[in-house]
Design brief:
This protein is an alpha/beta fold. It is extended, with a radius of gyration of 45 Å.
Length: 796
């Protein structure tokens, strides 16, 4: 036994480390410091401490040799292995080492009793352990009514807390009641209350006894509220368990009563029907195994349980899906061509692509089906094309409208944990179609929205990927469903709002607007017979002349599609129905001359001649989401200070086009015979009518330049001439998009000559033949070409 062992009280059987080398004597006001990672020791409290750092072991051994107390300080960061003086708190507790033990595994353990607070004044250098000169901080022992009140309150709250903790030591209430000083009791309770070391350090540093007692009272109140809530929850949980046991007993009694009344036979018959449906469904192995597992759960449940109906509905969904039901493809290319021609007039490129798709599928039935996406303005027949494809292939047709969908669960379904959960729209449509290889139309792709419940367009990435949709997993089903046999057809008005990754999964087929000839043919072949049938008439009692249809197209319905045209035809048919119902003799015939009396004044008129009769007006061509349109550019010159005024709700790009056009006109001032000072003493105002409609884009650059050139030269632009194209400051005419839609709009508006960028010559083949025959095209390389064509010879 070493000298160190003999100094330990009551430790004859304990072991302690051997004495270390002698170290310099410490000043009287110095303490050996032992830093703690997560322990705050309070005065009067005994705590076991485990030390492992060499410096801490050396400090403890030195304190034992010199029979001196140690100073216990909390580290600011517990992760620091060897803390420096700056990394320690400055207020700690001096402690007496009651016992020092060395365990068989080599670890060192202390039992320390806190004595008194101290504050570090300075740390001593050149020692193998931390030591510091300290200032002892005695508690204020002066008693006062305020402290006595706080002492009583702490005892009362502690007693309440201990009553709610049956596992607490039975001696603890007596120990608490024995305290006669508020500061000592506050320290004792702070050491017992569970809290973070930083919070305990905060209490240790409170030297004012009243503040310390108030802080402890706050913590006691918080712990008391938590304990009360916990006790309440325990009581409620116990009550629910007792209720469940009672319900189980009642259900068993109910089951016995049902057996006596024969009602159990109905439930058994329902389970047998579900089992037979699972056998018949032809599910894949994983889905079949899952369905039978859920059926076993259902059989063990009582019919009165809330989960019973939910599980029953789930199994009905599983068994009613077309896991193995498929229609036989009837692909006859000649018959498909006949059906497409019968259902749709025009759209030759679109029909050709559909026939190519069907031909490839006929030659390679196991191949991956591409995802076709029809893009075009409203009313051009996108949705009806999908129905024609289903009719041509003999497949079932289903449609899912995606307009306004902003919840990912609409695509993937809701999880069964939610009340009223259902599969997503994809699975619902397949169940409705009753075939795993149906034609499924996803309508209005560009109207998808994103909200707080996720992005539905992201959920569609898996649905529309031929490499992934063979194992599409709906959240409600919880098992994969094979979508690879489904022929997906998507529709959209514009692709700008469709995310790039989703657009990349689809083959985009554009459907432009119809020409006047195509609209007339569509009206005669489809729209008039459909409206006659809808209004209870036939061709013998109501005849609408071709001239009346053309009058509707020109004067009442300028649009890319035919929806408004069909509405106006419906008005004509209803007018005829009224006359026939009133007893009119003979068939009712409607011609172009009857339109004003039936529908009213013409909504559209040829404004071209009126608006281009004056210098400073040019006709441009614009693209809109619902097709092409004509755009008038008006310019005016007034005395001023050289400002450029732009009105008509122009976007930033269109404003920049106007500025570039003005710069080019100023550059041609000498060619136009103008004084350069004219622009300095004049304001130029450019206006684009229909001012309530926002407009943007660079394609009006040529029209703005011609309008300004016409203004300064005082030469009008021909009434039947329109133009489009972007301009550069070098005078080049750059290509633009939407040529087909713009040309069709020019034809509808009565334009005869169209000026287009030369680099758009490749788009001429997309323009319908009758439009090419009726319009004269000129191709522009530079703005000089436009000047010569728009303002006459000698201007280019």
């Amino acid at each position: 036994m070493t000298d160190l062992d003999r100094k330990l009280p009551d430790s004859a059987a304990d072991t302690a480390p051997a004495a270390a080398e002698a170290t310099p004597a410490l000043p009287e006001d110095a303490l050996i410091i032992v830093p703690m990672r997560n322990l705050v020791l309070f005065p009067g409290f005994i705590a076991p401490i485990t030390i492992g750092r060499p410096s801490s072991v050396a400090a403890a051994q030195a304190a034992m040799r010199e029979q001196s107390p140690i100073g216990v300080l909390l580290q600011r960061d517990p992760a620091t292995e060897d803390p420096t003086p700056e990394q320690l708190h400055t207020v700690g507790t001096s402690a007496t080492i009651v016992r020092y033990l060395t365990a068989p595994d080599g670890s060192h353990h202390l039992v320390c009793q806190g004595e008194q607070r101290f504050r570090v004044r300075e740390f001593l250098p050149d020692l193998p352990y931390l030591a510091a000169r300290v200032e002892l901080l005695p508690d204020d022992q002066t008693e006062s009514p305020e402290l006595e009140a706080r002492l009583a309150r702490m005892k009362a709250r502690t007693a309440e807390l201990l009553e709610l903790q049956p596992a607490a030591s039975p001696e603890l209430p007596n120990t608490v009641q024995a305290f006669g000083a508020a500061g000592a009791l506050a320290d004792f309770l702070a050491s017992l209350i569970e809290m973070k070391p930083e919070e305990k350090q905060e209490i240790l540093e409170l030297l004012d006894v009243e503040q310390r007692a108030d802080r402890v009272l706050t913590l006691l109140g918080h712990r008391l509220e938590v304990q009360r809530l916990s006790h309440k929850i325990d009581q409620e949980t116990k009550g629910r368990i007792d209720q469940h046991q009672r319900e189980f007993l009642l259900r068993e009694q109910l089951k016995t009563i049902q057996q006596q009344l024969g009602e159990e036979e109905t439930e058994r018959a329902e389970l047998e029907a579900l089992s037979a449906a699972i056998d018949k469904a032809g599910m894949p192995e994983e889905a079949d195994r899952h369905a039978r597992k859920e059926l076993k759960r259902l059989a063990r449940m009582n019919e009165a349980q809330a989960e019973y109906s939910m599980l029953l509905t789930y199994l009905e969904w599983l068994t009613e899906l077309p896991w193995s039901v498929a229609t036989e493809d009837r692909i006859d290319i000649a018959e498909a061509r006949r059906i497409l021609d019968e259902d749709h007039c025009g759209l030759e490129k679109v029909k050709r692509r559909i026939l190519e798709h069907l031909a490839v599928h006929k030659l390679n039935p196991q191949g991956r089906s591409p995802i076709l996406c029809f893009v075009g303005p409203p009313g051009v027949g996108k949705t009806s094309l999908g129905q024609s494809i289903a009719r041509a292939t003999g497949r079932k047709f289903a449609r899912v409208s995606l307009g306004g969908v902003h919840d990912e669960a609409e695509i993937r379904g809701h999880r069964r944990t939610y009340v009223g959960a259902l599969p997503g729209n994809i699975i619902q449509a397949l169940r409705k179609a009753g075939s795993r290889n149906c034609v499924l139309m996803l309508d209005e792709m560009d109207k998808l929205g994103a909200g707080i419940h996720g992005d539905p367009s992201a959920a569609l990435l898996e649905v529309l990927d031929p490499e992934q949709n063979a194992s599409f997993r709906d959240n409600y089903l919880g098992v994969p469903f094979d979508l690879s046999a489904v022929m997906f057809i998507c529709t959209a008005n514009v692709m700008d709002s469709v995310p790039g990754p989703l657009r990349d999964r689809m083959e985009v087929i554009e459907l432009p607007g119809y020409t006047e000839e195509e609209k007339t043919e569509i009206a005669i072949r489809y729209l008039v017979p459909r409206q006659l049938l809808a209004n209870g008439l036939d061709a013998e009692r109501c005849r609408i002349g071709e001239d009346a249809i053309r009058g509707l197209i020109r004067d009442y319905t300028r649009e890319a599609g035919v929806r408004n045209l069909e509405r106006e035809i419906g008005r004509l048919v209803r007018h005829a129905a009224v006359r026939i119902a009133e007893g009119a003799a003979g068939p009712v015939e409607i011609g172009a001359g009857d339109l004003h009396a039936i529908i009213g004044a013409a909504r559209f008129e040829s404004e071209v001649a009126m608006r281009t009769a004056l210098p400073g007006v040019a006709t441009g061509l614009a693209w809109t989401p619902v097709g092409g349109d004509i755009l008038f550019i008006e310019a005016s010159l007034t005395p001023g200070s050289g400002k450029l005024i732009l009105t008509g709700q122009l976007g930033e790009v269109m404003k920049e086009s106007a500025q570039a056009a003005l710069t080019l006109v100023k550059g041609h001032a000498a060619q136009f015979g103008l004084e350069a000072a004219l622009f300095d003493r004049s304001d130029i105002h450019v206006h684009v009518p229909a001012g309530a409609i926002p407009k943007d884009g660079p394609s009006a650059g040529v029209a703005m330049f011609i309008a300004l050139a016409s203004l300064v030269q005082k030469r009008p632009v021909p009434a039947d001439l329109a133009m489009t194209g972007e301009i550069s400051l070098r005078g080049l005419v750059l290509p633009v998009g939407g040529i087909k839609e713009k040309v069709l709009a020019a034809q509808r508006a009565g334009i005869r000559t169209v000026l287009l960028p030369a680099r758009n010559r490749k788009d001429l083949e997309d323009i319908p033949a009758d439009a090419r025959e009726k319009l004269q095209f000129h191709w522009l390389e530079t703005v000089e070409d436009a000047l010569g064509l728009a303002l006459g010879p000698g201007q280019g």
